[in-house]
UniProtKB/TrEMBL annotation:
Membrane topology, record value: Multi-pass membrane protein
Biological process terms in GO annotation: L-valine transmembrane transport
Location in or out of the cell: Cell membrane
Ranges annotated as spanning the membrane: 20-40, 135-155, 191-224
UniProt lineage: Bacteria, Pseudomonadati, Pseudomonadota, Alphaproteobacteria, Rhodobacterales
Protein's recorded name: Branched-chain amino acid transporter AzlC
Source organism of this protein record: Ruegeria marisrubri
GO CC terms in record: plasma membrane
Domain of life: Bacteria
Protein's UniProt keywords contain Iron: no
């Protein structure tokens, strides 16, 4: 019975994660194209995408490499972009923390924006789920994305500059994040964090090596945390 229900949740996760394929494929293809344009060969491109497995960090590192940024700046920027994964992990720990170590290791590798967005929404909506059911759902949500992300990266690397600019594959990046961020704007603290990050990023756009984005991210997190503290104090007084 436990296996049956876990299997059912796996397919629920699969169905919830499937729509993200429509942005993961052009996103991965675009990265493959950019990587070859930046001078990486196919083996280097595939090693990059398989080991990092984080589209935003991959694009950030690649852009800085093209700009001739120092290696330390490239590494620091990629790590900073991926710091959100640490927050994702902390958020998922209450739900998946008691799973076997090997499952948590795979989940850590497969924690991306899409798998997190699907999973946290489901876990909060159905708190009665068991740990095996949650883990099954998590793996199901990322199953449609992972192989197609790697395959599309390979196709992009092979095709390279032969893809016409009229295809406008770069639409995938903003649409992906908008589709995930929009539904997560559930509290005033979330809205404050987003607005502050946008405002600061615009003010710091002239800072070299895209370091303004790091500053904006930190400012957004600080503003969001402070807003949440203030809201909690008001609720306590009320």
């Amino acid at each position: 019975m436990a296996f049956t229900t876990s299997n059912s949740y796996y397919w629920k996760g699969f169905r919830d994660g499937a729509p993200f394929v429509f942005v993961a494929v052009p996103f991965g293809t675009l990265f493959g194209v950019f990587a070859t344009e930046a001078g990486l060969n196919i083996v280097q491109t595939m090693a990059f995408t398989a080991t990092v497995f984080a589209g935003a960090a991959q694009f950030a590192a690649l852009q800085l490499m093209q700009d001739g940024a120092p290696t330390l700046i490239v590494l620091a920027s990629a790590l900073a972009v991926n710091l959100r994964m640490a927050m994702y992990s902390a958020s998922l720990t209450p739900y998946l923390g008691s799973a076997p170590l090997w499952q948590r290791a795979f989940a850590a590798y497969l924690t991306v924006d899409q798998s997190y967005a699907c999973s946290i929404a489901r876990f909060e909506a159905e708190p009665q789920m068991t740990v095996p059911q949650r883990m099954a759902y998590f793996f199901g949500s990322v199953t449609p994305i992972t192989p197609l992300w790697i395959l599309s990266t390979y196709l992009g690397a092979v095709l390279g500059t032969r893809i016409p600019e009229s295809w406008a594959l770069d639409f995938a990046l903003p649409i992906t994040f908008l589709s995930m961020i929009g539904p997560m704007m559930r509290t005033m603290a979330h809205v404050v964090a987003a607005l502050v990050a946008v405002a600061v990023s615009l003010m710091t756009v002239a800072i070299p090596f895209n370091l303004g984005l790091l500053i904006a991210g930190c400012a957004g997190m600080i503003a969001g945390a402070q807003a949440e503290v203030m809201l909690d104090r008001r609720k306590a007084k009320a």
